Amino acid sequence: MNKSISALLYGIGVVVLVMFTSMFIVDQRQNAIVFRLGEVVSVKKEPGLYFKIPLLDNVRFFEVRILTIDTPEPQLFLTSEKKNVAVDLFIKWRIADVRQYYVSIVGGTGGNGEAQAQTRLLQTINDGLRAEFGKRTVHDVVSGERDKIMDLMRKKASEDAGKIGVEVLDVRLKRVDLPEGVTESVYQRMVAERTRVANELRSTGSAESEKIRAEADKTRAFIIAEAYREAQKIKGEGDGKAAAIYAKAYEQSPEFYSFYRSIEVYKNGFKGKNDVLVLDPSSSEFFKYFKSGGRAGNAGK
């Protein structure tokens, strides 16, 4: 009885061991390659429970999540001006074709080949940056064409990475700086350039200002001349109408008009307290109405 129980337990243990060694689970973050006697049998891309032949098959798992390559130290590249720039970058990549990745990168080596893949991607990116920076100035690589360079690097890296079953999702230049020896000279050149532009703008502004002033003075003189001409015209018309009124009044009563005009002259002539006139009353027409008034007064007496 004991032997039967032992045999049953042993049989169950063997079955459990065979089942355990014949099953494997693929996580959603992984792909798996099934090998049979060293040859690739299948690739499991969907997550779930799978089976294999014990002792004959073995399985290797590969990460398919997005991975990051972040350069620990800035890389130096030479621009078209023969000046070095320090570039700090990172790369986003993932395994797209596990079979191709294994054949091209991993092979018979141990591990999952991430280090080898990162080395190849960095080499491709560095070669591309060296070529692109060599065509551009410091200003272009620092700000002017930075986005264009990143797009070119991503496309070029994707083409090369496709050969090893890898997809490059993004290439970013985190920082592009000048070495300390170059920074001061570039800064001084930028200051000189900005000063030149500022002086040019000031010169252009002064010329425009003088032009505007000249135009304003010309317009002002024209407006004043037109206003003076119009004023003189109106004044002439008024003087003509006044003369006509005076003439008409004189025609109606010459003696009264002469008297009225004399009274106006007397008022204006003796307006001030200190005004003095030295005239001969007997021979001057100025006192004409004073004399007649005096005669009239004497007659009344």
Summarize the entry for a quick read.
The chain has helices at residues 2-22, 98-106, 114-133, 138-144, 146-161, 180-252, 254-269, 288-300, and strands spanning 23-26, 30-36, 39-44, 48-51, 57-63, 67-70, 75-78, 84-95, 166-177. It is an alpha+beta fold.
Q: H/E order of the elements? A: HEEEEEEEEHHHHEHHH
Instruction: Give the percentage of residues in beta strands.
Output: 15-25%
By secondary-structure content and strand pairing, the structural class works out as alpha+beta
Number of contiguous helices: 8
Task: Specify the overall morphology.
Answer: rod-shaped
Question: What value does the average pLDDT take?
Answer: 79
Evaluate the radius of gyration: 55 Å
Query: What characterizes the major β-sheet?
Result: 4 strands, antiparallel
Count of strand segments: 9
Helicity, as a percent range: 55-70%
Terminus-to-terminus distance: 188 Å
Question: Could you name the key traits of this structure?
Answer:
rod-shaped, 301 residues, 4-stranded antiparallel β-sheet, 58% helix, 9 strands, alpha+beta, 3-stranded antiparallel β-sheet
Description of the structure:
The chain has eight helices and nine strands. Helix 6 (180-252) packs across helix 7 (254-269). The protein starts with a helix and ends with a helix. With 301 residues, the chain is of the alpha+beta class. The protein is 58% helix and 20% strand. The strands form three sheets. Strands 6, 7, 8 and 9 form a four-stranded antiparallel sheet that branches. Strands 3-2-5 form a three-stranded antiparallel sheet, with no helix packed on it. It has a two-stranded antiparallel ribbon with strand order 1-4. Strand 2 and strand 3 form a beta hairpin. The protein has helices at 2-22, 98-106, 114-133, 138-144, 146-161, 180-252, 254-269, 288-300; strands spanning 23-26, 30-36, 39-44, 48-51, 57-63, 67-70, 75-78, 84-95, 166-177.
